[in-house]
Structure formats: C-alpha cells, structure tokens
Design a protein that fits this description.
The complex is a heterodimer. Chain A is mainly alpha-helical. Chain A is built from 11 helices and 2 strands. Chain A has one domain. Chain A is globular. Chain B has 12 helices and 14 strands. Chain B is α/β, with parallel strands linked by helices. Classes of the chains: A mainly alpha, B alpha/beta.
C-alpha cells in the first residue's frame, strides 16, 4: 500500500515539475534549460512569502506570478532572438539557469533556507500513516492537469496554440500571431515551473541549486512524452513508478538512474515515446 | 655637491633609524598558513574558521607573540577540493614559506595537501572532524573522529530508550558511508541490531522509498549521516512529513543548519565537541572576545571554527616548549602540550589525535541546542598505531 502511494505521489511531483517544460517544448520546440532556474525562483518566492509572514498557501499564486513575469522579461531579451537557432537556445537557456542561480545567491545568500509549509505531518490511511503534503500534491497535480487540458482544448487561446504546435507556418498564414503565442507560452511555462518550485519546497531544501536535480528527470520525461499532457501523465506514472520500485526493491542509488536509463531505452525502441502517433 | 651630501646625510640618518628599529621587532614573524575552502562546499563555514584564527593571533600578539616573535596569518583558498588544495599548499609552503599549517578542510583537500606537507617538512594541524585514520609524520588532528562522535548517541539511545534495533540512512559518499559503517559496527558490538542501511546519491532529493522502508522495518531508533546542507534538510523535512517520530540521531547537522530547519529539527539528537552554550568560563570568555572583535560581522562559532582557535594556541605552546619553530622539534612537542580552550583541555596525545570531551545535545523548538550529557575525554581509538 505504501509503495502504491509512493508511486502515485512521486508521479504527481514529477508531473508538476515537468508540465512547464512540456508546454514550452511543445510550442517552441526548444528545450528550456533555464527550467531548473525557474524552479529555484519559485522556491525563493515561497521563501519571500514566509519571510513576509503571509499565508503559505499564497506562495503558490505568488510564485506563479513572479515566475511568469521573469519568463516575460527573459522571452523578450534572450529567447526571442534565438527562435530559429534551437541549439543556441539550449546554450543560452543553460547559461540563463546559471545566472538565475548566481543572482539568487547574491540576493539571498548561499545557505539553505526554511520555508513554511501549508500543511505538515502525516494522516492515517489504509492502515498506515502517510505524509499529508504528498497526498495533497496528487490532488494539486490532477487539478493542474485538468486546468491545462481545458485551457489547451476548450478555449480559443488553446486552439490557436495547438495550431502553432501543429504547423507554425500554416498558422501564421492564417493570420495567427505566432510570436505572441510563443511569448505567452514561454511565460506560462516559466510560471508553471516557478509554481512547481514553490510546491516542492516542503519536501526540498531551498538553496540556489535546488532546481538542478529536478531538471534532468523533467527533461527525460518531456522527451518521452512528445507534446501531450496525457502522455506526460502516463510517462510520470510509468517511469516514476519504476524509480520507486527500483529504489525500494533494489537500492535508491540505482533508483536515481532509473528514469534516465528507461527514457533512453524507450526512445531507442519507440522514438515517439509515450505519445500515441 | 651640497645637494649630494645632504642626501647622504639623510640616507645615513634613515639607516641609523632603521638599525634602531630592528631590535624592537626581534626577528621575522612566525607565519601560520591557513588553506581553507573560501569557495566551494566549505564556503559557508570557512569565514568562521578564519575569524577564530584571527582572534587567536590577535590575542597572542597582544601578549608578546611566540618566543618574542610576532605571528601573522597567510590565508589561501583551497576551493574545498583536491586541485585547489594542491595550489594552496604549494604556494603557502614554498612561496610564502609558512612555519606551520593550521586548518579545517575537506578530506579531499587534506589528502591532496599531505604529500606537499611531507615534501615541505611543515607541521600541519588539521582542525576539522573527519572520517579518521589519516596518518602522516607531520600531521596532528585536534577534532573528533567517528569513534568519538558515534558512541555518545548510541549509548544514550540504548540507555534512555532501551533502543535495540536501528535504521541507518546516509548520503552516498566517503564520509557518509564511513560514518555509518562505523556506527553499524559500534551498534553490533553493543548488542544492538541494524535493520537497514540505505544511501541516496549526493544530489538526490526524494527520500520517499527509503522512508517507506524505514517505516516498514519499525526500528527503535534512526541514525543519519548525510552530506551537510541540502540533503540533510530534505531528509529531515520528508521524515517529519511522513510522521517519523522515533529517536533520531543526526551525525551531520550543526547548530546553524539546525536553526535554519526550524520546527522540523526539533528533537533531533546531535553529538559534537562544541556547542555555543557550553557553560564553561573559557567558552564564555571566548564568545565575548569574538563578539567584541567582530561585532555584527561575527560568524557564529562552531565545531569547525573553535578547534581552529585552539589549534593556533597548541602550536604556540609547542613552539615555546621546543624553543624553536623547527619542524623536527615542534612535532614531538605538539603531542605533549595541552591547552584549555572553549571545548575544554585539549591534548593531541593519542596517536596524533586528541581525547575530547563530547557533548550530546538535543535541538530545542527555537533551534538552540540543549546539552543533555557530557562524555569526558572520549578516546579517539586506534587512529595511527604505526606512526611514531
């Protein structure tokens, strides 16, 4: 039972952390290596909320807004000139991640900080006790998936975005301002990453490098998911579940490799990964 | 002509003045080299180490120096690692020509520096706790090794909670594994049982499967040895969130980290040779002097910076006993002198290591440490039996 809960909650965390990266990759076809940096921004937004003495729940909205605003500025200044040069964009966003980390070090110091958690402790469930916050994360991830799914599939904005994802030139020809879509998408992706950063603070330490360990797993999950939220969900459950199983039955050091190795194998034998087509 | 002779006269006067000034300075200053991790992993703690060395030197100079010679510090950044340490040791020993090295460093940096110490024949007092059994003709250690740190926690758990079964969790690196290997041996030798021993890579953040294993094993007590900083914080947070309430001994937490962890740290047992609230007059004097010298810039003194302060004094006493700074004379003297500092009376008399008074503390709700028990003169065990 505990293992099952571990799998579901791990998948939920992975989904929350990867969603922003997926959105950006889907529309812009560039891998945003500053994703780890945006996670860190979210963690420190939550820290700011704690320091100001506000309600910890507010940190989620606050982190989303801060991350989104950072995303807007960065899209304008750094990412936009590099749309036609995806390889340079990888380098630029990688460097950007380092700059964000160093900037945060300058502003907040290098040490590990403490953020107040919205809920703490464990609840009794199915004959054992389990971390309340991890269970809560499952709910948050599901809500996140539904909201994103509806936004993409049931709104005019989503329609336009999907048009750009499918065929950008054709969309442009139909009068869709793809530049604006890219701007909106990058900002949304950054906001989501920052939100995820705030979400993981009760589990993680808050330090200038907090986003880095999550980046590689998020990257691999997005690689095997194509551009669909559903396949990202499946990938998180399958690969995250495999990680939990390997960690509990084997050892956690192998568990740390599981997602990366499995993702590489999946792509070798099924290049479209978990996507349907 | 007149001009020239005036100049000569001035030169002569200056030379005369200089000649008068020399006896006041007695001789060249004694140079203490401090290779320390100003950048990299140790950068959080390094400033406090340098500060305590500065205080020791200021105090010694105010009382006339060592053998009438002034003492100066040469600080070099070792980058917290092997490559930086080689450069730092090389420049301190062969360019700055220091008389002694006194420093807290990572094990990687220390190991990289030792061959250079041997080549330069320079005494080296290592002031960081470490995994033990580093032996070199020129090396002395005045901080604790696992033999001294682990025993107080395990003994206390066995006595207070009658804990028989233990679960061990650590970060996957030399110090983490070394500490827990030792802990396991110690628990077994005392009739206890280790139900599980689990490690997560250094950059791992999700301890969930390990915590599930811990809960399934139902041990009486938990002992952890992670890397300092982030891994320690993530593990503690996730343990608390998972509702783990068994006695929890943490071999890697220091006062500062405990404070930053807030309420999650409450109730953690820690063991060390120094806490700021040790109630000895020497400690109070030391803290007051640090406060006076550094004021608002003071970095909280800790179990890594206080041995540095005492190390400088140990060197002073050894040089005075030897009557010289020559390595061959200072080395044997270092084992014989004892200095009473904030941690108590320290004498590096046991195979280049020091029997230490160890304290068992419990983290209070406000992040402070309550000292529960004092273990007098805990023996470092067989560290360097082959070294003369």
């Amino acid at each position: 039972m505990a293992t099952l809960l571990d799998i579901v909650t791990t998948a939920a965390i992975l989904f929350a952390v990867s969603a922003g990266l997926l959105i950006v990759f889907g529309v812009m076809k560039i891998i945003n290596f500053a994703h780890g940096g945006f996670l860190t921004v979210g963690g420190y937004s939550a820290l700011a909320v704690t320091k100001l003495g506000w309600n910890p729940w507010f940190s989620l909205a606050f982190a989303f807004v801060i991350g989104g605003v950072c995303g807007m500025i960065i899209e304008r200044l750094v990412v936009r000139p590099l749309y036609s040069r995806p390889l340079d964009a990888i380098l630029a966003t990688w460097g950007l991640g380092i700059i964000i980390g160093q900037g945060i070090t300058l502003a907040f110091g290098r040490e590990v900080q403490f953020v107040q958690s919205p809920v703490s402790g464990a609840v009794d469930i199915a004959g054992g006790s389990y971390s309340e916050y991890r269970l809560l994360l499952v709910g948050i991830a599901i809500v996140l998936a539904i909201v994103l799914g509806l936004a993409l599939n049931a709104t005019r904005l989503g329609l336009v975005t999907r048009a750009v994802i499918m065929n950008e030139n054709l969309a442009k020809g139909l009068g869709i301002n793809s530049g604006l879509v890219r701007f909106g998408t990058f900002s949304l992706g950054a906001g989501l990453a920052s939100l995820a950063g705030a979400l993981i603070t009760p589990l993680s330490s808050v330090d200038p490098n907090m986003g880095v360990p999550w980046l590689v797993n998020a990257f691999m999950l997005v690689m095997v998911s194509g551009v669909s939220l559903v396949s990202l969900g499946v990938a998180c459950l399958v690969l995250g579940g495999a990680q939990v199983l390997v960690s509990s039955w084997g050892n956690p050091i192998l568990g740390g490799l599981t997602i990366v190795v499995l993702a590489a194998l999946v792509l070798r034998f099924r290049p479209q990964g978990f996507a349907r087509d | 002509m007149i001009c020239l002779s005036t100049r000569r006269a001035i030169a002569a006067a200056a030379a005369f003045a200089a000649a008068l000034a020399v006896p006041a300075q007695a001789a060249d200053p004694i140079k203490i080299g401090i290779p320390v991790g100003l950048s990299g992993a140790n950068s959080v703690v390094a400033p406090s180490v340098v500060q305590s060395a500065e205080l020791a030197v200021e105090e010694i100079n105010a009382k006339g120096g060592i053998l009438g010679r002034k003492v100066v510090l040469e600080v070099a950044d070792d980058g917290s690692g092997a490559a930086g340490a080689q450069k730092a040791f090389d420049s301190l020993i062969f360019q700055k020509k220091v008389d002694v090295l006194i420093s807290m460093e990572t094990s990687a940096a220390r190991n990289a520096g030792l061959p250079i110490v041997t080549r330069g024949k320079t005494p080296f007092i290592y002031t960081s706790f470490y995994e033990g059994r580093s032996c070199n003709k020129y090396l002395y250690v005045n901080a604790w090794v696992p033999d001294q740190q682990v025993a107080p926690i395990v003994d206390y758990f066995m006595k207070k909670y009658s804990a028989k079964t233990y679960f061990l969790i650590g970060s996957d690196y030399a110090f983490g594994r070394g500490m827990l290997e030792f802990t396991k041996g110690y628990i077994t030798s005392k009739g206890g049982k280790v139900l599980g021993e689990e490690y997560l890579p250094m950059d791992g953040t999700d301890w969930t499967p390990i915590i599930s294993k811990l809960k399934a094993a139902k041990p009486d007590a938990l002992i952890t040895s992670t890397a300092g900083g982030a891994p320690n914080v993530t593990l503690t947070k996730q343990l608390r969130a998972a509702g783990v309430t068994i006695p929890y001994g943490n071999l890697a937490v220091d006062e500062g980290t405990a404070k930053s962890m807030g309420p999650d740290a409450e109730g953690i047992y820690i063991s060390g040779s120094y806490f700021t609230n040790i109630a000895s007059p020497k400690n109070k004097e030391f803290l007051a002097a640090m406060q006076k010298k550094f004021g608002a810039n003071l970095k909280t003194p800790n179990d890594l910076s206080v041995p540095q302060y005492e190390g400088v004094y140990a060197y002073k006493l050894a040089v005075e006993k030897a009557g010289s700074t020559e390595a061959d004379k200072v080395i044997p003297a270092l084992a014989e002198v004892s200095f009473e500092g904030p941690r108590g009376v320290i004498r590096m008399s046991k195979q280049r290591h020091a029997p230490l008074t160890m304290y068992l503390g419990k983290v209070k709700a406000d992040g402070g440490i309550e000292v529960l028990e004092t273990f007098k003169d805990v023996d470092p065990g067989e560290q360097c039996p082959k070294l003369k």
